[in-house]
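User: These chains co-purify. Model them together.
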Amino acid sequence: MIVVLKPDITKKQFDYIINRVKKLGLKPHISKGTERTIIGLIGPEDVLRITPLEVFPGVEKVMPVLAPYKLVSREFQTKNTVVKLSQKLKIGDKKIAVIAGPCAIENYDILYEIAKKIKEAGATILRGGAFKPRTSPYSFQGLGEEGLKYLKQVGESLNMSTVTEVMDTRDVGLVSRYSDMLQIGARNMQNFNLLKEVGQTKKPILLKRGLSSTIKELLMSAEYILSSGNFNVILCERGIRTFEDATRNTLDISAVPIIKKLSHLPVIVDPSHASGKWELISPLSKAAVAVGCDGLLIEVHTKPEEAFSDGNQSLIPNRFKELIKELKPIAKATKREI
Amino acid sequence: MIVVLKPDITKKQFDYIINRVKKLGLKPHISKGTERTIIGLIGPEDVLRITPLEVFPGVEKVMPVLAPYKLVSREFQTKNTVVKLSQKLKIGDKKIAVIAGPCAIENYDILYEIAKKIKEAGATILRGGAFKPRTSPYSFQGLGEEGLKYLKQVGESLNMSTVTEVMDTRDVGLVSRYSDMLQIGARNMQNFNLLKEVGQTKKPILLKRGLSSTIKELLMSAEYILSSGNFNVILCERGIRTFEDATRNTLDISAVPIIKKLSHLPVIVDPSHASGKWELISPLSKAAVAVGCDGLLIEVHTKPEEAFSDGNQSLIPNRFKELIKELKPIAKATKREI
Amino acid sequence: MIVVLKPDITKKQFDYIINRVKKLGLKPHISKGTERTIIGLIGPEDVLRITPLEVFPGVEKVMPVLAPYKLVSREFQTKNTVVKLSQKLKIGDKKIAVIAGPCAIENYDILYEIAKKIKEAGATILRGGAFKPRTSPYSFQGLGEEGLKYLKQVGESLNMSTVTEVMDTRDVGLVSRYSDMLQIGARNMQNFNLLKEVGQTKKPILLKRGLSSTIKELLMSAEYILSSGNFNVILCERGIRTFEDATRNTLDISAVPIIKKLSHLPVIVDPSHASGKWELISPLSKAAVAVGCDGLLIEVHTKPEEAFSDGNQSLIPNRFKELIKELKPIAKATKREI
Amino acid sequence: MIVVLKPDITKKQFDYIINRVKKLGLKPHISKGTERTIIGLIGPEDVLRITPLEVFPGVEKVMPVLAPYKLVSREFQTKNTVVKLSQKLKIGDKKIAVIAGPCAIENYDILYEIAKKIKEAGATILRGGAFKPRTSPYSFQGLGEEGLKYLKQVGESLNMSTVTEVMDTRDVGLVSRYSDMLQIGARNMQNFNLLKEVGQTKKPILLKRGLSSTIKELLMSAEYILSSGNFNVILCERGIRTFEDATRNTLDISAVPIIKKLSHLPVIVDPSHASGKWELISPLSKAAVAVGCDGLLIEVHTKPEEAFSDGNQSLIPNRFKELIKELKPIAKATKREI
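Assistant: Joint model of the four components:
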């Protein structure tokens, strides 16, 4: 922690600061420059975080030196985390995971039909929403437990792993009984009680980046889950909110290599929500594989024009199949498989 | 709803769209221009929202005509909503409400001391967090129910109304027993289950705008509460996330007159979170009153340098007192009182 | 300048850095913490800025201590700059300057009529564009020198000072002959050659903040003008680009007190461009005066519906007159005049 | 153009609007819905753009139907534009162009050394700045004409095409004599006079997207050049300004397929400026090729730690060589060459 002092700091203010930080168990290193004096504080960062040093008279600004997260960092664990969904299915190793399915679960038959086709195309994990976070209270809110049942039945009958969103702390137990992986949606990335709750399960957690969350905040939210005891966390870049309105959100493709550098957790990309346009799913998926992602999350629907939600950003199964084929040489070029 | 067709749309695609919208009970008005044909769709907008017309082959884009919210709109209710906190205390009428207090409740004595001083200065509602949404799992998370008890005791002994944040659907009952008003924090603005839950109480709800939520999304979140049966909603502008890093967030002062135009709900401003700097609280509060806000939410602490949270953005009681005095002529100039 | 080293830096890398900074004439202060070593560099910051220390193997990040601007800073000059436009007319003292007029100069008569009415209402400086920066090459681009002549004639006949935009280094001499003050538009805030060129005149310069420029960058652009020899600079906050689309831009009202703290230069506010909506000009002008601005820049047009440009964000003279009246008590409440 | 009327519009207001648009030569199509009446206006869009219909009493909002650009659009020209730099060298065809070199030209020897190595690695176009747009007036501003001479000499001796930035309308002739292609930097994307000036040359123009410019605005700026007579325009995505601070800017990778859909012009990607970090150049270049770009613009320096500018975001020649090798299979996978 670096404390930059104001040029007009008084002797009394200076002494007060030095005494205060010493009492907190910190060791101050003082460097007097021609225009500013700075104090380097050495000691437990946890102590520093709780003390608002900027409030002290005579202080101009305070600059942290260490990252605020620990368990999720590469320094804590240099080896890549590989999350196991089943005996054979892992996220974070050489093989890029393909998660696909409809935005919302509408009924058993449609879900089964979609699942069958995406499995043939190469997807291994089935997604589908039973609880839907919708901007409008008047939009379809999901089938709830009925949808979870369909997801489990279809997953079992086709031997696919499953993932679905949980939005409420009260539903974590329920959703855990039906789904292999729990998704925390972008709008809940900083729903800290929900993070703690899923942190107490042993389920793999798919944590989506908030629309306007920095990478650092995403890692801090993951830290909530890891510090609650659950290390099975997969991060997901799904587009951030910017001024550009040609796409629904702006896919922050740089987030993938940045996160891989800062953290040991796997990172996947969701081109459907990032763009909001089905025409962009194919080029953005290629970019995601080329940049080094560990997985893709793609919305697929047999009849996008009749989907209850997000039809605009869903691929039809044929295009999805073609896409997976086109991704193979790119994966190979980056020493991965798909 | 306006549907703009592609210039190269086929007769078959065109007929399909027309048939489809007619089946949905909508009446299409066709306008053929030199470069584009557009279809104006008239009928129940709810039907339109569920149908992803952009997916149809031949459609270039779809533009909504009506706002997606209803109950919160000025069209639904032209008269300003005035929310009653007690027999005497209202938000939304001539008198500008002053809500103040510490970020987090630390213990009874500090809370009492702060409350006493802000009451003397002119505040009528006491704020204080018992459940704190913190970016880091290692930061102080609040005293929980113990903090709620202190809030209620201090409020009653000083005859002040109270407000505190609720973060978890499971805590809505608990917090309702202790506090006069429930706050939904910025990070939970789109925690839709929480919105529905507080919508089922009769308590006044202070709904803070999300860091990267548009005004339209804020109104949609309020719509969740109103459509659940609770019309006692107060909106709060507290700064949005932008590229500017000289302040913690960017206070969107224009949001106040925009919301007053679109909606009948009261709007207050939180200059503490908007700026993250105590030096800005005074000028921003003046701007907020001048622009026409219905209330202010200000963090005050007797010893900001020892506060458990947000010390940097808290005023000391003397400065707070002076501020309220300086706001009086500005309120008067805009035909309000404070 | 603070250099934070990587935890795994080698002895050789460390020695290389120390030797290198010493050769540059800098004095390193080394602080070894438990997790990181940091080096505080003391010496001429100019040297440091040119040396990309982050490239050095073993360096994790580099954090500047000093602001990158000098002449514009409060530390360089503690007293407020007051810019003189004429013997009687100043910007930056107790009296808040009111600059008004049409977006574009259309012809002599319309300009004269508008100018006469705004003068009666209380404006002292006439604005009007002769060279217009338009997003589209097909929009009206301004009357050029003809417009400048009208501006000068109207200004002289009504005894008002004038301001107009200059967009091209080749036009600085021309525009200087006709106008009392030169405006650098938002899109040219980082047109560095233009900044240097106007820096070589003695004319007052109205420098508008770029749509996505930080306050620091605005001050750096002003530094270009001051360091070229011209200290007569007035800064203008006119809204920044954010995700919010209810307004054309987001007025960053906090910029006013922030700039007043960091710099001695006067700051004015342009509510017309900030909002893009005439209904917001009045509330935003009140907020601007309350927050402490030194002037207002307001678009006024007698027939907004026939204006060649920006009709949507122009006030009619009657509303403008009423606004100035309403601003008087707010100015008084903040110990200013208008 | 669609005009949405207010629900409380009067008969008089309605008639006024209808008469007015008819006088402008437009044909109104009226659709009366249950909650709103809308008017579809058919006729020359140019007329509509100049008339601020939103100002009319009774109008709620106005929504454009057509894109504001013409010459740059896919509708105007369906075939991809291929820009010729020399008999053999083209941008926009099957072969992906590799433009590389130092940020700033420092002297002949360094430039020659860098150019020789990047040519060996596969680059065909040499970049280097002689006029540098720097945020600070105290940073290195470029060698000016001397630098242009070095660029031309090195280009000729190694048989490479060249590109360099022009910042001032007065320098367009000078730079054109020395360089094969002219670059308009991000900060000058809306320097409309400069756009017109380069539009009057026949030189290929590399137009970089502004830090906070929408894709639509980038296309409008290109429209300035094309409408001045020069169709040899190459667009460049180089990162946009967002709230994320882990990278210098956020590479908007989606811009590539979006622009390819809307326009016939070639699009290249600059991963150096987009990220500001040399470690990201390699993954982002792979993503750019995978997503379908027509070229890459990469900063390379033999001694980044001694570069006068942007050392942090430059690759050393060996890494650059390796990168080009790694890009080959990805280019092949997307049916391109590099």
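The longest strand of chain A covers residues 27-32.
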